[in-house]
Amino acid sequence: MVLKMFKFCFYADVSGFHTWQATYGCEFTGNGSKHGYSQYGYDGRTFLTFDKETLSWVAPEPQAQITKRNWDVNVQWSQRNKVYLEKECIEWLEKYLSYRRKEMLLRAEPPVVTMSSKMEADDRMETHVCRIHGFYPREIDASWMRDGEVWLEDTFRGSIAPNADGTYHYWLGIRIDPKERGRYRCHVEHDGLQEPLEMTLKVSESDLGLIIGCVVAGLVLVCVIAGTLFFMKHRNDYKAAPTSYKGSDSSDCGSNQAI
User: Distance between alpha carbon 48 and the CA centroid of its chain, in Å?
Assistant: First the structure.
């Protein structure tokens, strides 16, 4: 891991505009070795470099020799630089590393997944975009699935990018035949999710209106058929009632005549 500090100063004189740069920092590697450095630059070129073993400054440019001699005389300042690079800087670096490890272990923001879609006018193909927002850590596994298998054909995706709050966002799209919409899913796996998330494709507004129209038409047709059957049933009952009444009168007359 590396901890770096940068300073830039800009000034102008009769010869033009110039830049004075300062860079210092430290690092330690996996094998336990530790390093520190401090150097200055002028107009993009190395001007002076600190040698913490000899407590002296190295001047690769002849123009830096005067400054080198002045800084070499200040032994106390050179000793402070050595202590900072070998001790204080490494201590801060270890603290930052421990904070980062804790943050990575404890923080897990689940992604929010949304879908958008549109139909291409030229070929009547549909483009669907799966948008993934607000997740942390950065690592995420997202893909398009067709019939339960990862599908790469006619797919495209963006890059994982940071948000202002430290989380990340990502997107991936696909072009499909609308007739096969039900075969596709956006599949997302992330440490912030207890289980993988799958999103179905969003139905376009035009298709949604068509579906609603078909449903309403179907309901109207069912009502018409039910009303027709109801009317025909009661009509038949109405026609059969007078026949039954006449039979009753004939029977009564016959019984009266017998008396």
Answer: 45
Tokens for 195, please give them: 């289980």
Q: What are phi and psi of 166, to 5 degrees?
A: 95, -10
CB atoms within 10 A of CB 89: 24
Determine contact, residues 117/129, Cβ cutoff 8 Å: yes
> Is residue 134 exposed (0-12), middle (13-18) or buried (19+ Cβ within 10 Å)?
middle
Alpha-carbon gap, residue 84 to 63, rounded angstroms: 27
Least confident of 171-175, 184-188, 209-213, 222-226: 209-213
> pTM of the full predicted structure?
0.43
Q: Which residue in 209, 183, 210 sits closest to 198, CA to CA?
A: 183
Q: Are 160 and 170 in contact (CB under 8 A)?
A: yes
Q: Give residue 170's identity as a one-letter amino acid code.
A: Y
Residue 62, preceding peptide bond in cis (omega within 30° of 0): no
